[in-house]
Design brief:
It is a single chain. By secondary structure, the protein is an alpha/beta fold. The chain has 16 helices and twelve strands. Strands 2-1-4-5-6 form a five-stranded antiparallel beta sheet, with helices on one face.
């Protein structure tokens, strides 16, 4: 089995949390108070549910202790892989177990899966929550473990019929009670009483009272008491019927008050929801409001950027103007140069004068200068870059202004639906307030749906018409008066019965004494025979008890050797010794041979106990899960280890990670395996 990921909405101090897990070892190294123990508890609760549901103290109720203070959805999801299938568990927790929601999905198809129920932990691991915490869930606060009945059943491959081993204690207790009931030595034992009775019968043969008159007197007293008893019983039945009617009326009155309270809350939430719903129509959603806030924030940024872009565009424009001026000068020089060259050449040919050659030279110089100026301005990449920058900035500014105008128009139209004018200084505040109102509306809507569901459930399981017609003017003290009267009569009836039983017992004794005068020996023989039969039954039950204890001892001892081998394997890695001084008795209790005496491991230091319990747990896990390996969750199990055992503990983690998926959490870098 592999856990792929967990997502926690709110659970304890963890909120909006996500964690993925690798195939082998996943290390979570966080400081104290981060929530490592909370994460371990979340994984267990997703499979098994909360511990301490029936505890009286809130501190002992895990549901109360882990309820998120910040509010929000209480629960999350867990994805795991088993048998080639990938599943997603979703649990949402309410105030009590009956309010919880459980869903199981095929994580590949996204469809609801019926492969497991909300008892998924017991169905997958084949153990209960207590056994889970004593094996695969290692806690720094509770490393101690022991072989529970659930662990014994899993070790003995009895996961499909755990009741067999679980019922051992029940059967053993019944046998013990039966033996105590028959005991010779206990004053409450039947054989003890019979033995005294036989002694009394033997002594009573010496008494020869005149009992005839006494029998007649006692029989007459019994007849009188029976007549009184009949009258009292009739009165008791009459009061009981009256109490039944009053109790039914009281129950209906209570249900009516409860129903009226539900209706009141129903209509209050319905009216509030209808009023708020009128404000949030025409497709208004949380996403739309959030989008407008985001768009407006972006438009403010664009508006601030327009000023900078305008300055850059002006600089580019100035550069272009400078280049244009230089380009015009170059053209003038080129034209002047060409005119001088042409005219000078013509005059030189026509006149033959060398004086006009200076005009040609000056024209050539002007032509060259014009070409240089022309090529150095308008024809350069610098001119093109300035023009490109100008055009790009101009286009961006136009688009930004269009975006700003469009955004403000959308927001103005949106705010107008709520009668709010557009004001740049309060836009974000107004949109945020609308979003909060919308969130409150959605919350109120959920509350209405919840009370609507509560109303429907109440109406489905109750006779509403009968509840509506019951009178509300109910006298609450009437039931107490009837109960008191019934109690008084009941006491009188029991007193009369006791008196009748006393007389009958006395008559029985007298008749027995009369019979004993004629056949005392026969009575004694009969009693002795009964006493003998009960004594044989006591002996047989004692033998059954011994055989049952022997059978359990043999059953458990079959798998104590695999657990011991696993224990010693990990103990040798952790401590460097064989661990042969540790022994498991037939009831899977771990003892240590210390100077020739088998001692309880709880007498050792915290570090030694943690070392022993870690190896014990791994021995149990190896024996319990020879095929499909469970996920092992370790919440800082090495906190009490010294340097040597800490180093060897890391080796154990590396070894386990080859075969198991390990989720290892610690708050100190020195205990980090990496």
């Amino acid at each position: 089995m592999k856990i792929r990921e967990v997502r926690i909405e709110n659970f304890g101090k963890l909120s909006g949390f996500h964690q993925a897990f690798s195939e082998g070892l996943t290390v979570i190294n966080e400081e104290n108070g981060w929530g490592k123990s909370t994460l371990a508890a979340f994984i267990r609760v997703m499979f098994f549910g909360f511990e301490g549901e029936k505890k009286r103290s809130d501190a002992d109720k895990e549901r109360k202790r882990l309820k998120p203070w910040q509010g929000g959805t209480y629960g999350g999801s867990l994805v795991f892989e088993l048998g080639g299938q990938e599943y997603r568990i979703v649990r949402i927790f309410g105030k009590a177990e009956k309010d919880d929601e459980f869903k199981l999905y095929d994580n590949i198809t996204g469809m609801i899966s019926t492969d497991y129920t909300d008892k998924i932990g017991e169905e997958i691991f084949r153990i209960d929550s207590d056994s889970f915490m004593k094996t695969v869930l290692f806690s720094q606060n509770d490393m101690e473990t022991s072989a529970t009945d659930g662990i014994n059943a899993k070790l003995g491959n009895l996961s499909e019929s755990m009741g067999d081993i679980d019922n051992y204690e029940i059967v053993a207790e019944r046998i013990k009670k039966r033996l105590n009931g028959l005991s010779h030595s206990r004053s409450s034992g039947l054989l003890y009483g019979m033995r005294n009775e036989l002694t009394e019968l033997e002594n009573d043969t010496k008494r020869i009272p005149d009992i005839s008159k006494s029998i007649e007197t006692k029989q007459e007293a019994i007849d009188n008491l029976n007549r009184v008893l009949d009258n009292k019983r009739r009165e008791y039945e009459r009061l009981s019927e009256e109490l039944k009617q009053e109790s039914e009326r009281a129950q209906l009155t209570s249900k009516k008050e409860q129903y009226e309270n539900i209706l009141k809350r129903y209509y209050e939430r319905k009216d509030a929801g209808e009023k708020a719903g009128k404000l949030f129509k025409n497709g208004i959603s949380d996403e739309k409001i959030t989008g407008l806030i985001s768009d407006y924030t972006e438009s403010r940024g664009k508006k601030e950027a327009i000023s900078s872009k305008t300055q850059l565009m002006e600089s580019a424009k100035e550069e272009i103007e400078k280049i244009k001026k230089k380009s015009a000068l170059g053209i003038i020089l080129i034209v002047t140069g060409l005119v001088l060259i042409v005219s000078g050449t013509v005059l030189c040919v026509m006149t033959g004068s060398r004086m006009v050659l200076s005009a040609v030279v000056i024209g050539a110089a002007a032509l060259a200068a014009g070409i240089i100026i022309r090529n150095g301005s308008a024809g350069t990449s610098h001119s093109e870059a300035a023009l490109s920058l100008y055009n790009r900035l101009n286009g961006e500014i136009l688009k930004d202004r269009e975006y700003i105008a469009g955004t403000e128009e959308d927001i103005t139209r949106f705010l107008s639906e709520f009668g709010i004018p557009f004001d740049e200084s309060t836009v974000i505040q107004n949109l945020t307030a609308i979003k909060q109102d919308y969130d409150s509306f959605q919350s109120a809507k959920k509350e209405f749906e919840a009370v609507e569901k509560e109303k429907k459930i109440f109406e489905d399981i109750n006779d509403i018409e009968k509840i509506r017609t019951v009178k509300t003017s109910y006298e609450s003290g009437k039931i107490d008066e009837i109960n008191e009267a019934i109690g008084d009569i009941g006491t009188e009836i029991e007193k009369i019965k006791d008196d009748i039983r006393t007389y009958n017992n006395q008559l029985s004794v007298l008749f027995e004494e009369m019979d004993e005068l004629n056949a005392k020996k026969d009575i004694l023989d009969e009693k002795k025979e009964e006493f003998s039969k009960l004594s044989k039954r006591e002996k047989l039950i004692t033998q059954t008890k011994n055989l049952l204890e022997e059978a359990k001892t043999r059953f458990v001892s079959k798998y104590s050797d695999p657990v011991a081998r696993g224990f010693r394997k990990y103990y040798e890695i952790l401590d460097g010794e064989s661990g042969m001084q540790y022994h498991f008795d037939a009831n899977m209790n771990l003892k240590v041979d210390d100077h020739g005496d088998l001692r309880n491991t709880q007498l050792y230091s915290a570090g030694s106990r943690d070392k022993i319990d870690l190896c014990f747990r791994m021995g149990l896990i190896e024996a319990m899960y020879p095929d499909e390996k469970p996920v092992i969750i370790m919440d800082d199990p090495f906190v009490n280890f010294d340097e040597k055992h800490l180093s060897n503990g890391k080796k154990i983690l590396e070894l386990l990670a080859e075969e198991y998926q390990i989720i290892y959490m610690t708050c100190h870098s020195i205990r980090n395996i990496y």
